[in-house]
Sequence to fold (222 residues):
Amino acid sequence: EDQVTQSPEALRLQEGESSSLNCSYTVSGLRGLFWYRQDPGKGPEFLFTLYSAGEEKEKERLKATLTKKESFLHITAPKPEDSATYLCAVQASLATNKLIFGTGTLLAVQP
Amino acid sequence: AAGVIQSPRHLIKEKRETATLKCYPIPRHDTVYWYQQGPGQDPQFLISFYEKMQSDKGSIPDRFSAQQFSDYHSELNMSSLELGDSALYFCASSSSGAEAFFGQGTRLTVV
Fold:
C-alpha cells in the first residue's frame, strides 16, 4: 500500500535555529513528490516539486531534497513567519494524478 | 495570478440536509481534485476530473457525488449529511498532472 510518513509531528525552533523535516514514502512508482505549506484554516500552498533522486529545489530559507526513499525539507535560519504545517505529498504512479499526503509537521518558530 | 476559487467559504447545515460546494479552477488547468480535511488530519483525496471526465476516485462516500461542467467549474454534492462530514473541503487544480494548486477551502459544519 502506498504510504507517506512525516517526522517529527511537531517541531519548535528558536528564530535562526536551522533544522530539517523528513518525509519517508513507500509507493509503487514515484511520479512526483510535493511539499506544501498550510496555515490554519487555509488551503495548502505549493512550495516544491521533486521528480527524481538527487534533485534539489530552493526557495528563500527552504531547500527540498529527494532520495529514493525520502525527502527532506531543510529550513535555514527560520523566522517566526515560517511557522505553519508543512505537508509532503506523492503521486504514487503514472496511472494517477492524485496526491497522497503525509500527516504533516507542525513547525513553530519562536522569536 | 488567478487562483482556485471556492464557494461558499463557510457553510452550516443540519443533519440529513444537502450541501453543494463549488470550485472554479485556474484557467487552462485540465484537472480538478476534491479533498476533505478533518481537524488535525491530512487532506484525504475524494475524487478527480480530467478534461471533465472522472479520472480517479478515492474514499468518497456514496452520499457524495461530483461533476465537472463544460466551463470547467466543478461541484461537490453532499446528501444526507452526517455530523462526521464536518470538515474543510478543498478543491485543487493542475495542468497535465503537474503540481496542484489549492483553493482556500469550504468549511462545512453539520449540526
Q: What stands out?
A: Chain B has a mean pLDDT of 95. Chain B touches chain A at residues 4, 31, 33, 41-45, 48, 50, 55-56, 58, 88, 90, 92, 94, 97-105, 107 (CB under 8 Å).
